[in-house]
């Protein structure tokens, strides 16, 4: 720590400078500041596709960060990495942990739905009708929750819910 940023653009540099200033001014503990530096370095590594390095930084941040809200975003980002790498079970685990700490994360709900939808498609391809229906229904439930939190987002999911007739089922189940 700190991470040398190879491909910094103006916005990344500006964010880094502003974040450093804010951290110096705010009355936070040394652990909280260090956790933020690890989190920031994790985001930088993740944006460059350096997932192993990003995970190392996120795990360090999780060791130090005590605030549940901040921890939820770290856990969410860990889930993103596992999801990107096709490790859906681990991604789901981290998304659910993030939601336990912060139930106002529509992006986590959306990503859970995307995984279940993908699993539903795979089940269809393997002629597993019951499993596909179960996965699609789970996707529907999570998309409905995400849309409730962010009604102007997830237009494709909203269209999928309408065209498959699941929107009304999901609304009844909530």
From TrEMBL:
<keyword id="KW-0677">Repeat</keyword>
<dbReference type="Pfam" id="PF00515">
    <property type="entry name" value="TPR_1"/>
</dbReference>
<feature type="repeat" description="TPR">
    <location>
        <begin position="35"/>
        <end position="68"/>
    </location>
</feature>
<dbReference type="GO" id="GO:0009535">
    <property type="term" value="C:chloroplast thylakoid membrane"/>
</dbReference>
<feature type="repeat" description="TPR 1">
    <location>
        <begin position="35"/>
        <end position="68"/>
    </location>
</feature>
<keyword id="KW-0802">TPR repeat</keyword>
<keyword id="KW-0150">Chloroplast</keyword>
<keyword id="KW-0793">Thylakoid</keyword>
<dbReference type="InterPro" id="IPR019734">
    <property type="entry name" value="TPR_rpt"/>
</dbReference>
<keyword id="KW-0472">Membrane</keyword>
<comment type="similarity">
    <text>Belongs to the Ycf3 family.</text>
</comment>
<comment type="function">
    <text>Seems to be required for the assembly of the photosystem I complex.</text>
</comment>
<feature type="repeat" description="TPR 3">
    <location>
        <begin position="120"/>
        <end position="153"/>
    </location>
</feature>
<feature type="repeat" description="TPR 2">
    <location>
        <begin position="72"/>
        <end position="105"/>
    </location>
</feature>
<dbReference type="InterPro" id="IPR011990">
    <property type="entry name" value="TPR-like_helical_dom_sf"/>
</dbReference>
<keyword id="KW-0934">Plastid</keyword>
<keyword id="KW-0602">Photosynthesis</keyword>
<dbReference type="GO" id="GO:0015979">
    <property type="term" value="P:photosynthesis"/>
</dbReference>
<dbReference type="InterPro" id="IPR051685">
    <property type="entry name" value="Ycf3/AcsC/BcsC/TPR_MFPF"/>
</dbReference>
<feature type="repeat" description="TPR">
    <location>
        <begin position="72"/>
        <end position="105"/>
    </location>
</feature>
<protein>
    <recommendedName>
        <fullName>Photosystem I assembly protein Ycf3</fullName>
    </recommendedName>
</protein>
<dbReference type="InterPro" id="IPR022818">
    <property type="entry name" value="PSI_Ycf3_assembly"/>
</dbReference>
